[in-house]
């Protein structure tokens, strides 16, 4: 979160206390997002769709999976390029420009980033669990496995389902799961190689 305390910029209380600070924090992230491109890991997951029904469950709030071409992306923690009304979790708008104090929905409620802040419910969690329970393979890429409830999804996979964990400093070990393969590489290095091996099966 850079120089900002997470409680200041990623909680409902922080927004109530200083909405301008929170809006500007996300405005900066949004502007930055519009300057970057999908990497080799994003593109490899698109290639995987040629052979498999790929569902991506991401904690990231960017749109890089979509821009790369992935067709089924579930954003557990919301989306930076969307806004929503302070009055409704279901009233969601496309948002590429800054959100300013005074920007409102048609009913007059302030707009906020469509981000799941700490202390808020994760509305798509049940969908994510359902996807994980049905998976033939689970690939975990570049996560600390410390953010819950997202980190708990690994517990919903069938005990016989192969799990691949790609991270240069893997936060889980082989002792956690018999069906776990650890690939101690960055997402950009490890994902294309794993995808190539899965496509060749």
Can you characterise this structure?
There is one protein chain. The protein has 201 residues and is an alpha/beta fold. It has two domains: 1-35 and 78-115, SIR2/SIRT2 'Small Domain' (2-Layer Sandwich); 38-76 and 122-199, 3-Layer(aba) Sandwich (Rossmann fold), CATH 3.40.50.1220. It is 31% helix and 17% strand. It has seven helices and eight strands. It has helices spanning 6-9, 12-17, 19-33, 40-48, 64-68, 125-134, 187-199; strands spanning 56-58, 73-75, 78-85, 92-94, 111-115, 138-141, 163-166, 180-183. A hairpin with a 6-residue loop joins strand 3 (78-85) and strand 4. The protein starts with 5 loop residues before the first helix and ends with a helix. 26% of the residues are buried. The mean pLDDT is 92.
Q: Portion of residues in helices? A: 25-40%
CATH architecture name of the largest domain: 3-Layer(aba) Sandwich
Calculate the mean pLDDT score and round it: 92
Q: Give, in spatial order, the strands making up the sheet with the most strands.
A: 4-3-5
Structural class: alpha/beta
Q: Remind me, CATH topology of the largest domain? A: Rossmann fold
Largest sheet: 3 strands, antiparallel
CATH homologous superfamily (4th level) name of the largest domain: TPP-binding domain
List the secondary-structure elements in sequence, H or E: HHHHEHEEEEHEEEH
């Amino acid at each position: 979160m850079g120089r900002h305390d997470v409680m200041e910029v990623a909680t409902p209380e922080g927004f109530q206390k200083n909405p301008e600070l929170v809006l500007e924090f996300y405005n900066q992230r949004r502007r930055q997002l519009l300057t970057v491109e999908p990497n080799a890991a994003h593109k490899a997951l698109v290639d995987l769709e040629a052979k498999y029904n790929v569902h991506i469950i991401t904690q990231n709030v960017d749109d890089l999976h979509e821009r790369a071409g992935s067709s089924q992306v579930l954003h557990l923690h919301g989306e930076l390029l969307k806004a929503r009304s302070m009055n409704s979790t279901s009233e969601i708008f496309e948002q590429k420009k800054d959100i300013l104090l005074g920007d409102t929905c048609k009913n007059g409620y302030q707009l906020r980033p469509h981000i799941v802040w700490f202390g808020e419910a994760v509305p798509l969690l049940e969908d994510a669990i359902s996807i994980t329970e049905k998976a033939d393979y689970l690939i975990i890429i570049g996560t600390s496995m410390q953010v819950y409830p997202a980190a708990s999804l690994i517990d919903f996979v069938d005990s016989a389902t192969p799990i691949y964990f790609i991270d240069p400093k893997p936060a889980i070990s082989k002792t956690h799961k018999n069906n776990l393969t650890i690939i101690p590489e960055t997402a950009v290095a490890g994902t294309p190689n794993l995808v190539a091996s899965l496509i060749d099966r």
